[in-house]
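Justification of resources, computational component.

The compute hours requested in this renewal are based largely on the per-chain cost of generating structure records like the one below. Each record pairs the submitted sequence with a full structure-token output. That output is archived, and it is also reused by downstream analysis tasks.
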Amino acid sequence: MSGKFEGLNVLVVEDSLFLAELIGKNLQSLGCEVIGPAPGVDEAMALLEAGDTDGALLDINLGRGNTSFPVAEELLKKKIPFGFLTGYDDPSIIPPEYRAIPVLLKPFDIDQLALFILDLMASAVSKDKS
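The structure output for this chain reads:
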């Protein structure tokens, strides 16, 4: 799958350094450029403003009572495809306006993450070509 999405810039919002590195390596193996990772909302918003983002992966719970929903709102406004990553199996933690967004449950393996990323980025590629 290497190079399949060469040149796509993907924002990673994840407060766990270990998971952020794992996600980043998988994105790079697909040919993506990693933006971040951003451990919180402020960092993610700054990265969104600073660069050309084609897609994003958002951990829902960013610790200390913070969530990535403000980032999700900005991504929707900008029409940038994204998906949520979460360890919570309860869909009620996701506000109604974001329930159509794809979700990948933690823990996940590398293959599950790759398929999730492929689906999201395929959406970005098809929107870019239309």
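The chain has a mean pLDDT of 87. The beta strands are 9-13, 33-38, 55-59, 82-86, 103-105.
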